[in-house]
Amino acid sequence: MKTIYNEVPADALTGSMRDFRVPAGNDLERRVGNFFKWQNLRRQNGVWPFSRATDFGPRTEVSAADDRGIAMQGVNFASQDYLSMSSNPVIKATALEAIERYGVHSAGSPALVGNTTASVALERKIAEFLGMEDALLYPTGWGAGFGVIKGLVRSSDHIVMDTLSHTCLQEGANAATRNIYQFRHLDMAHCRRWLEKIRATDTENGIMVVTEGLFSMDSDTPDLAAMQELCNEFNATLMVDVAHDLGALGEDGRGHIGIQNMIGKVDIVMGSFSKTFASNGGFVAVKDRAIKEYLRFYSAPATFSNAMSPVNAAIVLKAFEIIDSPEGKVLRNELMTNVLELRRQLTAAGLEYYGDPSAIVAVKMGTEGLARLVSRRLPELGLLCNLVEYPAVGKGAARFRMQVMAKHSAQNVSDAVARIKAARLEAEIELATMGEQAPRMRAVA
After folding, report:
1. What pTM was estimated for this model as a whole?
2. What are the b/e assignments for 96-110, b being 16+ CB within 10 Å?
């Protein structure tokens, strides 16, 4: 039986989380109430598709519930498990073995006694994998991104960063210095102009240039060789975040650093384990052990946090072994087959997406109102995927970020396309009846 939806109030289809970023008032507790009021209006009308929980983890098909407790079942294109490692039997066996050997907790900072033989071996593996001298682990990928910037950059230094850099990098920059310069996304000429301007007046202090190997909202990548050459020219340090491509892309799993023949050539590489390696945690890889040792004692998310769990360290170490083996190549091929097929079927269905082939297939929606109405229908239709809207992306550039796994079946892919197409067509009709001009899907021949 087809659901008859109640009309959604206009206030639930407009506004964004940016509106509540700086609340007014002298009562720190009471002044957050307006955000909850707006959030709850969206929640009550089924257009708050966040904070969901799965019953059995990031499988290709899931049982889940929203934060009202309303259950759904369907195909899962919302989880970050690109090579389907979280359900890999070898990975699960490794976790159990690690629990028996180490227990479940590091019980100390990496500057003290939080390290284990597993974490030490993992640091060596990461360094070898990336052609770097050494690596340092962090308990989260967010901590690694924040910590490498805050740990190395001082208030008189400068940061030049791609405007779409991840929040952990932005927050690290804001915590480190006021001298922050953002260049237009992937715009090398704009980056050069900032470097020229800085060095015209300051040759004494440091510059860190920040970018990503694969940007998660647009699925695109910079010219890393050109960026490193530019940094060398202006005596700047290049830091590249490889959270979304390392392990999942490239013939040998080295991501865009490998694809672009930049192994061992980038100044600093930072990454997260939460997308491909079935674990929390992150790392910073460097070309000089002196940098690692400095970060160990001056990067607060490492120094003043318990070290990465020994269970997570063992899981990631095993994941690296798989990625660096024939099995890893098979998994990457399965992933890319699914990615290309999803993109092909979306095009055939009249749906557009951003960027180049990767595990991230961001399907264009347009207005936030339309995207929210689509999100209301997807659970009933049996599709779990993540709505991304302003300010995480540009205003009027809302999208659904579909995250592909190696073990998605051909039927999973076909079902996902059919369901998101149906949801959008129904949402467009609803918007039209509400008197709002709805962006139309292009006709399919």
Report:
1. 0.93
2. eebeeebeeebeebb
